[in-house]
Amino acid sequence: MTASLLRAVESAGAEVGRHDTLNSESAYQTTALADTSFLPGPVLLLGAPGVGKGTQAQFLVNKYGIPQISTGDLLRGNIASGSQLGIQAQEIMSTGRLVDDNLVNQMVLNRLHEKDTRRGYILDGYPRTLEQAHFLDSTLARLSLAPNLPVVAISIVVAYDQLLKRITGRRVCPICKSIYNVHSNLPTTAGRCDHDGTHLLQRPDDTEDVFIERMKTFNDQTAPVVAHYRNLGRFEEVDGDQPVEAVLADIESALLSLRNNSSLVSATSN
Ligand SMILES: [Zn+2]
């Protein structure tokens, strides 16, 4: 397992809390019934830290009624359930080593056999390396798991300076977890939560130094995976510097166009 995956697992608790807060506070939460007229298939959602990937993934999950598959969740789930793979992962991690690609691949493979993936799924944090991408593509082609569609990748892109503002400007209420931003989403009273008046805090990780490090890791790891799906004609970028509903609409039209293009090329023909 890569260092960043380990970090993703460690910070996943905080991430989950963050998404819950975003969703419960969001006026855009999808409450309508899932759209079952379109077959989304496997969708890899990519995005640098701060682009709003978690929020968009949740929208797509609600919209299409498909699961989100994240390697952090899989690893925690396997360990918690005491599965064979979970026991192996725990043994490796207890000696300070990193869980390797093979173990992560097997966990994903097991997950793809579950029934809720039949109409598609959102892949989050996987495939993270070129080796994982090759494994996933060849496995999907070999197993012909329904839906028999190839992976398409959609990247949410926000300019570097804009992302920096989003992250270093972020302020959080320690009580109700509401999120503000000193550049774009100020509370009514400076430095105080609108709901409970609590003094807002900046998370220790929301600094420029941490951001630069995370961006470097993200770019290094994502570049080969992006190039892989771009070369296969299964990659689209969407502008993440818009209101969340507009980003969602762009993701949906990108997905539609990728599926129209790739419908002629089934996973089995690769
Ligand atoms: Zn609050």
SSE inventory with pairings:
Layout: H1 3-25, E1 41-47, H2 53-64, E2 68-70, H3 71-81, H4 84-94, H5 101-112, E3 120-124, H6 130-143, E4 152-157, H7 160-168, E5 170-172, E6 179-181, H8 208-231, E7 235-239, H9 244-262
Parallel strand pairs: 1-3, 1-4, 2-3, 4-7
Antiparallel strand pairs: 5-6
Helix pairs in contact: 1-3, 2-9, 3-4, 3-5, 5-6
The chain binds zinc ion.
Zinc ion is lined by residues 173, 175-176, 178, 193, 195-196, 198.
Give a description of the structure.
- By secondary structure, the chain is α/β, with parallel strands linked by helices.
- It has a domain at 23-69 and 119-169 and 206-260: P-loop containing nucleotide triphosphate hydrolases (Rossmann fold).
- The chain has 9 helices and 7 strands.
- The chain has helices spanning 3-25, 53-64, 71-81, 84-94, 101-112, 130-143, 160-168, 208-231, 244-262, and strands at residues 41-47, 68-70, 120-124, 152-157, 170-172, 179-181, 235-239.
- The strands form 2 sheets. The protein has a 5-stranded parallel beta sheet with strand order 2-3-1-4-7, sandwiched between helices. A two-stranded antiparallel sheet has the order 5-6.
- α1 crosses α3.
- The two termini are 27 Å apart.
- Bound molecules: zinc ion.
